[in-house]
Amino acid sequence: MRQFAADAADPDVIVDELLNGGGAVKITGLFSAQQVAQARAIVMAHSEQDTNKATHFQGAAEEAGTINLQRRVWNLLAKGEVFSEMAAHPVMMKILRQFLGTEFIMGSIAANRILPGGPGQEPHVDYPYWDFHKPETHPIGFNGSFPMNAQVSVILDPFTKESGATGYVPGSQKYLRYPGPEDNFFEHCEQMTGEPGDVVLFYGVTWHCAMPNRSTHDRSAILIQYLPKWVKPMEDMPAALPADFIDGASPDIRQLIGLNYPYPEVLDAAKAGNAEGRI
Predict the structure, then answer these.
(1) Average pLDDT for residues 221-230, to the nearest whole number?
(2) Residue 62: which pLDDT band, with cuts at 50, 70 and 90?
(3) 93: helix, coil or strand?
(4) What is the pTM of this model?
(5) Cα separation of 86 and 92, whole Å?
């Protein structure tokens, strides 16, 4: 996985690596130790209070009876200003505007905490591709002409081979299909290792999964999903955010939570001046 310092994160080079290279990059120096510590403290508090939250690709955990060893914390924007800082970091915004279009949105921002003993996940691709194991529910083919997802992991605990750093198959974003048993994912995968504060950015159609945590410490990260403006987000963030947050949101956060894109809209009730140029 290619690594870039924050002050040398060239969007042209990174976008080419996401599309035509390994499908993932690591960026260092975006967040301070204080930001990481603050985010981690909030994640720990919420994941201890309520462990029964929806997560995904947990067949192995369900079979092993260890489902409680992977925990999600949703709706992070409402839980601390540090998460808005992570979601709208200027370096990331510049790269993502080139990758997903200038008016891209955020589909989700959540924390994923895997405790020691957690079995990891099944190999998969991410939303909106993530249920492509049911191809009949999607249009024919697998979109390859433009990306419909970018994933960011802000690492909060050391991501090592032992702690279950995300496994991925370099170059698999070019296969344009869902990973199957015949692909022997675990024989071919590498891992997205990193230190607290590092950021991993990858194209969500790259085959990947959380690996088993065989260490003695947690393996936690902030997971941020970015989408083109017209893809339906996974989380309904405006509905979950308090009015004062929305009223005080920066222009970048307003864009990310979808407030700049009007659709779906009741066009029968829309004012003519507001609808100009939309159709």
Answers:
(1) 98
(2) low
(3) helix
(4) 0.91
(5) 9
CB 219 within 8 A of CB 164: yes
Residue 75 vs residues 49, 78, 92, 199, 235: alpha-carbon distances, Å: 15, 6, 20, 20, 8
As given in the structure block, the two tokens for residue 173 are 């974003």
Helix segments in the chain, DSSP class H: 11-20, 33-49, 59-64, 81-87, 90-100, 185-188, 237-240, 243-247, 251-256, 272-275
For residue 49, the model assigns a pLDDT of: 74
pLDDT tens digits, 118-134:
999 999 999 999 988 88
- Edge-first strand listing for the sheet containing 190-191: 190-191, 167-168, 208-209
Where is average pLDDT lowest: 59-68, 107-116, 262-271? 59-68
The whole-angstrom separation of Cα 276 and Cα 279 is 7
d(CA 150, CA 201): 7
Q: Which helix (H) or strand (E) holds 25?
A: strand 24-28
* DSSP string computed for 26-69: EEESSS-HHHHHHHHHHHHHHHHH------SS-HHHHHHT-GGG
